[in-house]
Amino acid sequence: MADIFGKALLDYHFGNYSEDIKTYSSLDEEDYIPLPYLFRDFDKMPILEQKALELATGTVLDIGCGAGNHALHLQNNGFEVTGLDASEGAINACKSRGLSSTVHTKLLDFSGKQFDTLLLLMNGIGLAGKLNNLSNFLSHLKSLLSPNGQILLDSSDIIYMFDQDDDGGYWIPDSGNYYGEVTFTMEYKKEKSSPFPWLYLDFNTLQNACSANNLKCELVSEGNHYDYLAKLLLQ
Hints:
24% of the residues lie in helices and 31% in strands. By secondary structure, the protein is an alpha/beta fold. The chain has one domain (4-158, 170-234): 3-Layer(aba) Sandwich (Rossmann fold), CATH 3.40.50.150. Helix 1 (4-13) packs parallel to helix 4. It starts with a helix and ends with a strand. This is Class I SAM-dependent methyltransferase. It comes from Flagellimonas algicola. Keywords: Methyltransferase, Transferase. InterPro entries: SAM-dependent_MTases_sf.
C-alpha cells in the first residue's frame, strides 16, 4: 500500500507543503487533515493529549507516532521514549526531527519488549480496525506492558453523527456492525490509499472489552465533544 500519510509528512517537514490530506469515509463525509496540525507542539495540542503526556511515566512507547509530536515532547522532557509507526515516511520524519528511538512496523508485529506507558493518542485505539479485533488488540497491548504499567488512549463516541429522534434516541443504520466502525480512504497529490478500517469506541464498550481482557479501565477526562481520555491498567 502506498505510504500516502508518510509522503505528506515528509513533504511538510522538508518545506514542500502545497496541500492537505483529503479523507473519504463510510460515513459519507469528505474531510481534510491539515498537515500543519500533524506537526503541532504541546501548546497547540487538545487538552486530552496534554493530559495524557502529563500522566506518562517511565519508559514510553508512542504507538502510531506520526510525525512524533508526542514522543518528541516527552523526549525533550527527559523520558526514554520509542516512536512506533507502520508508515516508513512517518518514521523518517521522526528521525529527521530528532527522535532517538523509532520502530517501523505494524503494532501487532512488534513484540519482545515492555514499557511503563503505552500511548495511543489521536484515537490510536482506532488501529484495532473493527470491534471483533479489539480483544486480540488489547491482549497484544498487555504483552507490551510492564507489570505496573499503564495504557493511555483517547477516543470518541461518534453517536452524535447519527440522526436523533424526538425521544432522544439515535437512528443507526442496521448494518449488523458496531456504529463506531468506519472505513477510510486517504488522498494526497492525486494518489489514493487502499480503504482501511478505523474504530471509534464509546467508553462503555471500551470498558466492557477491558473487563473481558482483565484490564482495569478508568475514565481520566472527558473532552468537549464526545471524546475522552482513558487509562488502562493490568488487573
